[in-house]
Amino acid sequence: MQTFIEQSIKNTLDGKEAERILRSCVHCGFCIATCPTYQLLGDELDGPRGRIYLIKSMLEGEVSTKQTMQHLDRCLTCRACETTCPSGVEYGKLLGIGRQHINQKISRPWQHRLYRFLILQSFPYRKRFDLILKFGQIFRFCLSEKLKSVLPIRVKQTKFINMKMHSRKVILFAGCVQPVLAPEINDSVTKVLDVLGVSVIEIKNEQCCGALSHHLTAAEQALSFMRKNIDLYWPVIEQGVEAIIVSASGCGVHIKDYGYLLREDQEYALKAAKISTMTKDISEFMSEFELEDLKIDNSINVAFQSPCTLQHGQKLSGITESLLQRLGFTLAPILDADLCCGSAGVYSLLEKNISNKLQDKKIESLMQGEPELILTANIGCLKHLQRNSPVPVKHWIEEVAASIR
Ligand code: SF4
Ligand code: SF4
Question: What is the pLDDT of residues 63-75, one digit of tens each?
Answer without folding.
Answer: 889 999 999 999 9
